[in-house]
């Protein structure tokens, strides 16, 4: 095959009147070849395409296809991290270019107006709904909720998975979020969650839960309800829910709620809050380091607002609060008792007298028996948590209300039984 330059020279020599043999001698080509190209005229030569170089991603493409087939919402960053752990040495762009060819097309979304807040001004709080199957409960599907607080300026996020959205959980999560952030924003924007916003009255405006108002007064922030049917005004907290679901939650396994939160906290610290944020263009933790000094200082004392409940003691000497069971001492009368719940503790009162105090348990379906509440040790097959239970099966304590008897009494009873007399 001749090059384009050689073809132009052959045709030029032919136009000058040189014979085929003369052109063949000058170019070193065969006369048949010269005659063929003169007859064909000026056409660009056809080159065979080069064999494509093998892609460094090729060994990992089946893995990526399988992951996207099962979990189409997984982020490119998550998949890139996963195949890096498998030995892939290429860049992030190589992965995203391939994912565009295999990911299902997304529906076009309407344009949104961007709204930014000054540092320290606002945080946004909301719950998101998740379904999970814990390894400790095979076959059972559980519902958990993700409480999330996101600072509007730096996008720093604090979040925790919880078993319910009750008021005690909401208060406890606020306290934990403020402690972790080391301060309090000027205002917190809420969707109309029932535990925060009770409703709207024409002459009073928004009606908030009084315990939430007590929390706001203690920490010095202003609660602010999202306008009805305008959930997109809370985009800074709702968009991360999709990010959490796609980059963390999908395609993972968890033993229980504690393991779920342990893995999630690690992901927050090492991935989510260390990423380059797509909207602000800043590393989240570095941006937060600038915003943190503008937050309000934490109050000196703890938040101790009390939620009062009435509960009846069960036949096992337990009361139920928030789906968990807490013990009362042996001998407590089985009748309704007053329960005072704070963000971190549960107090049980009988006739105004404190008879038991417990830390609030996370999750649901858990039991706690406090130290000293049971005079006998638990059975050998019991899995109920007992705080500081000191009695052991080899040395059981006497049951409450049973007087000890002399050994001579038991010897006399034994003689009567041996003689066939009834024991008295």
How would you sum up this structure, described in words?
The protein contains 12 helices and 15 strands. It has 424 residues and is an alpha/beta fold. Strand 12 and strand 13 form a beta hairpin. The chain is elongated.
Which shape, going by the Cα principal axes?
elongated
Which strands sit side by side, in order, in the main sheet?
3-2-1-4-7
- Tell me the number of helical segments per DSSP (H or I, 4 or more residues long): 12
Span between termini: 122 Å
The main sheet comes to: 5 strands, mixed
Key attributes of the depicted protein:
12 helices; single chain; 424 residues
Summarize the SSE layout with pairings:
Layout: H1 4-15, H2 20-27, H3 31-40, H4 61-70, H5 76-85, H6 92-102, E1 122-132, E2 142-151, E3 157-162, H7 167-181, E4 187-190, E5 197-201, E6 205-208, H8 210-219, E7 222-225, H9 235-249, H10 257-270, H11 284-291, E8 307-312, E9 318-321, E10 324-327, E11 336-341, E12 345-350, E13 353-359, E14 367-369, E15 385-386, H12 407-418
Parallel strand pairs: 1-4, 4-7, 10-14, 14-15
Antiparallel strand pairs: 1-2, 2-3, 5-6, 8-11, 9-10, 11-12, 12-13
Helix pairs in contact: 2-3, 5-6
């Amino acid at each position: 095959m001749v090059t384009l330059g050689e073809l132009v020279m052959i045709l030029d020599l032919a136009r000058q009147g040189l014979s085929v043999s003369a052109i063949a001698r000058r170019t070193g080509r065969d006369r048949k070849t010269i005659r063929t190209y003169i007859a064909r005229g000026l056409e660009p030569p056809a080159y065979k395409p080069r064999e494509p170089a093998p892609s460094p991603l090729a060994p990992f493409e089946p893995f990526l296809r399988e992951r996207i087939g099962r979990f189409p919402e997984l982020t490119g960053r998550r998949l890139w991290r996963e195949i890096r752990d498998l030995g892939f040495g290429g860049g992030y762009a190589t992965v995203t270019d391939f994912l565009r060819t295999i990911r299902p097309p997304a529906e076009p979304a309407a344009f949104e107006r961007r709204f930014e807040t000054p540092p320290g001004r606002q945080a946004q709080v909301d719950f998101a709904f998740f379904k999970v199957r814990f390894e400790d409960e095979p076959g059972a599907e559980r519902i958990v909720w993700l409480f999330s607080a996101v600072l509007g300026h730096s996008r720093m996020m604090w979040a925790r998975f919880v078993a319910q959205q009750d008021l005690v959980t909401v208060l406890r999560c606020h306290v934990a979020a403020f402690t972790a952030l080391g301060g309090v924003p000027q205002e917190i924007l809420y969707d109309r969650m029932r535990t925060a916003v009770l409703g709207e009255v024409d002459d009073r405006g928004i009606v908030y839960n009084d315990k939430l108002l007590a929390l706001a007064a203690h920490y010095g922030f202003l609660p602010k309800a999202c306008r009805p049917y305008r959930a997109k005004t809370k985009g800074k907290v709702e968009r991360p829910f999709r990010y959490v679901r796609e980059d963390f939650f999908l395609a993972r396994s968890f033993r229980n709620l504690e393991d779920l939160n342990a893995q999630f906290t690690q992901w927050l610290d090492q991935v989510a809050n260390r990423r380059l944020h797509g909207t602000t263009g800043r590393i989240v933790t570095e941006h937060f380091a600038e915003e943190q000094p503008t937050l309000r200082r934490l109050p000196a004392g703890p938040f101790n607002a009390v939620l009062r409940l009435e509960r009846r003691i069960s036949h096992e000497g337990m009361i139920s609060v928030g789906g968990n069971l807490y013990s009362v001492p042996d001998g407590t009368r089985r009748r309704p008792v007053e329960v005072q719940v704070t963000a971190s503790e549960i107090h049980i009162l009988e006739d105004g007298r404190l008879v038991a105090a417990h830390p609030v348990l996370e999750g649901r379906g858990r039991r706690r028996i406090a130290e000293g509440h049971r005079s006998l040790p638990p059975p050998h097959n019991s899995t109920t948590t007992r705080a500081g239970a000191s009695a052991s099966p080899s040395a059981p304590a006497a049951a409450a209300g049973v007087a000890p008897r002399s050994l001579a009494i038991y010897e006399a009873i034994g003689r009567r039984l041996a003689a066939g007399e009834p024991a008295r």
